[in-house]
Amino acid sequence: MIAIRSILFNAAFYLNLIGRMVVLSPVFFLSSHRKAWRVPKDWAMSNHWLMDKIVGTTFEIEGLENIPAGAYIFAPKHQSFWDAYALLPWLDDPVYILKRELRWIPLFGQYITKMNMVPVNRGAKGKVMTAVMERTKQEMRKGRQLIIYPEGTRRPPGAAPDYKYGIARLYRDLDVPVVPVVMHPGLFWPRRKFLRFPGHFKVRILPAIPAGIDPDVFMKRLIDEMESASDALLVETIRANPQLPLREDAKRRMAELTAR
């Protein structure tokens, strides 16, 4: 039954994506930047509805009061494709630093260009990266929210942390608060797997780390606060969903945490 529901959800997910992108393109491209956000945000909300009705997976968000006004860095755990889009409806005007090749995808590339995302050649250095940073600063001056995954890429639930120092450099150069976010959608939507599992999980938004702290001190604080909150939420999520099949990283970490 899980396999059948997963196939149905995946089909509905991509049909929903392509259908909305095509049908709503006139609305999207003829709208102002602010009003155009309604299209991807409504798409995200429709995916939550599909996952609830087809798979039986629901979530809740804790800590929305911790989101400051204006510009900040939004720093979530990254475990699944789910968290790449899921929280867009709760952010005012988010911006991503994206690899430039995404702009070459038909229609999708025009979508991200319309929303003023910041393209980057990941192999570039020196003047190119200076230009990327300046472009990012320009967007942040508009009061936007930069979404950065502190570990850089998707990590399975329970995996050993692998934070990249790049977020500390952005924190220093942009001089804005950082909002850490922990969650475990990877237990329900595993990376590189087509199966989707039913259950309920929480997204926990932690208090913002204020701007102006020494980057090294900030980095240690970010890791300590995120990992402590992530461990607590991992135990809570697994105990609340005993039906979940756990991968080795989650089993190992759960055993370590519950043995203390």
TrEMBL record:
Query: What Gene Ontology terms for biological process does this UniProt record contain?
Result: phosphatidic acid biosynthetic process
Alphabetically list the UniProt keywords.
Answer: Acyltransferase, Membrane, Transferase, Transmembrane, Transmembrane helix
Q: Pathway involvement?
A: Lipid metabolism
Q: Does the keyword Transferase apply?
A: yes
Q: Name one GO molecular function term.
A: 1-acylglycerol-3-phosphate O-acyltransferase activity
Q: Where are the transmembrane segments?
A: 12-31
| Domain Phospholipid/glycerol acyltransferase: from-to ranges | 72-186
Q: Which CDD domains does the entry mention?
A: LPLAT_AGPAT-like
Q: What is this protein called?
A: 1-acyl-sn-glycerol-3-phosphate acyltransferase
UniProt organism field: Hoeflea marina
